Amino acid sequence: MTRRLLPLLLVSAVLVVAGCGSKSSTSSSGSSAAGTSTKVHFAKTKFAIHAGLAFGTFHHFIYEPFKAGDFSHPFTHKFTILKAVAAGLFVEHEVKLALADAQGSKLLSHVVAPLTAVGAGLALIRSSIKSGHPNAQAISSANSSVSAAESNSSSAGQPIQETVGSP
Length: 167
Description:
This protein has helices at 2-18, 43-68, 78-103, 112-130, 136-155.
């Protein structure tokens, strides 16, 4: 099982070390005010990478096990719950990076609302899975927001390819 998680951990470590976070320029006053757009270099490309990792990880480690009923038996599926909680942290991080990239691109402005909804629900999803009683409404809502973000991104000309680390 650790061999399956190793590529995911390596990819996340490389992204963190490489500094794939969004770089933004400040406005002429020296600070970035709410409502002003900031310049993000390679925003569409970075958005596609971060969103693909976030959405693929969400579906693979949280949504699909939930739909399969893998969270309903916490004593027999402790490792599944552990992977889902860790994946939730990773997804939350990648969604924050994708959101910053989307906010820096006029073309991806329609993706900001669904990404914000996904990010807002992840803490609730993680805590409910950790407690052994996954919040079905929060997981379904997050899945709907992921679908909306993917659809809006595709219509803006930037399709998202979901990615999960492979063994």
